[in-house]
Design goal:
It contains 18 helices and no strands. It is mostly helical and 364 residues long.
């Protein structure tokens, strides 16, 4: 939701709930109010467009909007910054497990499709209400009046992170659109989509590791004013444990597939499994590279005042990926989209490292 998962965390790192309850309350309310405002405006526009273009989907869309609303209320960034994640983690895990169980239990006929967003959205929203209760209870947060000028400033300050994050769409999600435009078969696109979703599941393992080390990176870079080799090494040291754990996970995945891939494919009756497995193998390094890009780029460069550079890097990679993906798909077919997926992350990796290691002082 906008930029606050990155922008707001440094404001609370090092704060003590017993001593700094007022500062925490102000930061919490500022982010919550801006997110609610953005959610109301964007949801109204989306629902209005849906009613005009595809009115039959309005009910499903409205129910799915419960998910981003839950993110608005969740404010996991507060727990992350204060490094007190256990209670929220339990609440979210329980809600996800209950949602999955209810979907498997209640979903019988295709006509019941509205149950899926209702259950998933309802479970997420319930966890978010628990989150609000815990914030108020654990950290003694109180709702404060925030001047409109502060809210507009928060929107203005976070715009580069927001648009930079939005440009990620062009080198992660857009490949399917390009593949369809260049005539890749529906079966090939389905195999690519399945591989991409599996890799994103692996990336989801990296996300809690990134969040755990995020406030530690803030502390490590607190006295630094700009990117340099010293700052690169400081964040890199925090990334080593993450990379080791991710390598172990990827190794286990590879071992499981090497020993039982055929049995898994036969048991689940998965079509195009060999093609999908090949693309997963090509795309799996993205899990490691993406973790690096988040810590050194989204966290490091944004903290060190190089937000504009990070934004320009992300938008440049997005535009370049459209060209690279198109060329690779035309030449190689479906597997070309998988190579484009990892090439984009490698290029972003190089641009981020360049900002730290370049001797010339680039404009921040």
């Amino acid at each position: 939701m906008y930029s606050f998962d990155i922008d707001a965390v440094p404001k609370l790192v090092g704060k003590n709930p017993e001593r700094d309850a007022i500062d925490i309350s102000i930061a919490y309310c500022e982010v919550l109010y801006v997110r609610l405002m953005l959610f109301v405006v964007s949801s109204a526009v989306i629902v209005a467009v849906c009613i005009a273009v595809a009115p039959k989907l309005t009910a499903a869309l409205s129910l799915w909007l419960l998910v981003p609303l839950s993110h608005v209320l969740n404010s996991a960034w507060v727990y992350q910054a204060l490094e007190r994640n256990a209670a929220l983690a339990i609440a979210i895990a329980v809600s996800r497990i209950v949602a999955m169980a209810l979907v498997l239990w209640l979903l019988v006929d295709p006509e019941d499709f509205l149950l899926v967003p209702a259950i998933v959205g309802g479970a997420s929203l319930t966890a978010s209400f628990v989150s609000v209760f815990l914030v108020l209870r654990q950290f003694d947060v109180q709702f404060k009046r925030i001047p409109i000028a502060h809210l507009t400033r928060a929107i203005r300050d976070g715009r580069t992170i927001f648009f930079g994050s939005g440009s990620v769409y062009f080198y992660r999600e857009f490949n399917v659109v390009l593949m369809n435009s260049w005539g890749v078969s529906s079966a090939g696109i389905a195999a690519y989509s399945l591989a991409e979703k599996f890799v994103k599941c692996l990336q989801a393992i990296a996300r809690p590791l990134n969040q755990f080390y995020f406030p530690k990176a803030v502390i490590a870079l607190r006295d630094s004013k700009s990117p340099g080799i010293t700052q690169f090494k400081a964040v890199l040291r925090l990334g080593v444990p993450q990379q080791v754990l991710l390598l172990i996970v990827l190794g286990i995945v590879w071992l499981v597939w090497a020993l039982g891939g055929e049995d898994i494919s036969e048991y689940w009756n998965l079509p195009l499994m060999q093609e999908t497995a090949l693309m997963v193998g090509v795309m799996m390094p993205v899990v490691l590279i993406g973790s690096f890009n988040f810590m050194q780029g989204s966290v490091g460069l944004n903290i060190l005042g190089a937000r504009r550079y990070m934004f320009l890097s992300q938008i440049s990679v997005g535009i370049l990926n459209i060209v690279v993906c198109s060329l690779l798909v035309i030449e190689m077919g479906t597997i070309g989209g998988a190579f484009a997926f990892i090439v984009a992350e490698i290029i972003l990796f190089g641009l981020i490292a360049r900002r730290y290691l370049s001797r010339s002082q680039l404009e921040q």
